[in-house]
């Protein structure tokens, strides 16, 4: 469900942040996102799309969003790469 995806994304970000030994305060400062928004995201999974993309960019993961809303034809081309 969307709520489960939100919580999973929040958990993944928390893990990356902790692995890199970055505090929530440091993350807020580096990303330009308020500390309250960082805390809310890690606790509830709720965050604006713009803020989520800023966090992805900060951790060099922006390309992870490349497949979102791609057309079926685009996905079929990707599948061909794996079937070779």
In short:
It contains five helices and no strands.
The share of residues in extended strands comes to: under 5%
Shape descriptor: elongated
Biggest beta-sheet profile: none
SSE string, helices as H and strands as E: HHHHH
How much helix, percentage-wise, in residues? 55-70%
Q: Measure the end-to-end span.
A: 33 Å
| Poorly predicted spans | none
**CA radius of gyration:** 15 Å
* Structure classification: mainly alpha
Strand segment tally: 0
Total helices: the number is 5
Mean pLDDT level: 91
Q: What characteristics describe this protein?
A:
0% strand; 5 helices; 69% helix; 84 residues; single chain; mainly alpha
Explain this structure to me?
With 84 residues, the protein is mainly α. Helix content is 69%, strand content 0%. The chain is built from five helices and no strands. The protein has helices at residues 2-19, 24-31, 35-44, 49-58, 72-83. The protein is elongated. It starts with a helix and ends with a helix.
Layout of strands and helices, then pairs:
Blueprint lengths: L1 H18 L4 H8 L3 H10 L4 H10 L13 H12 L1
């Amino acid at each position: 469900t969307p709520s489960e995806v939100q919580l999973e994304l929040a958990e993944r970000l928390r893990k990356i942040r902790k692995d890199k030994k970055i505090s929530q305060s440091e993350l807020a400062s580096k990303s330009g996102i308020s500390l309250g928004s960082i805390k809310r995201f890690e606790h509830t999974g709720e965050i604006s799309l713009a803020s989520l993309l800023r966090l992805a960019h900060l951790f060099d993961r922006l390309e992870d969003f490349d497949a979102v809303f791609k057309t079926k034809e685009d996905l079929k081309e990707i599948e061909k790469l794996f079937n070779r």
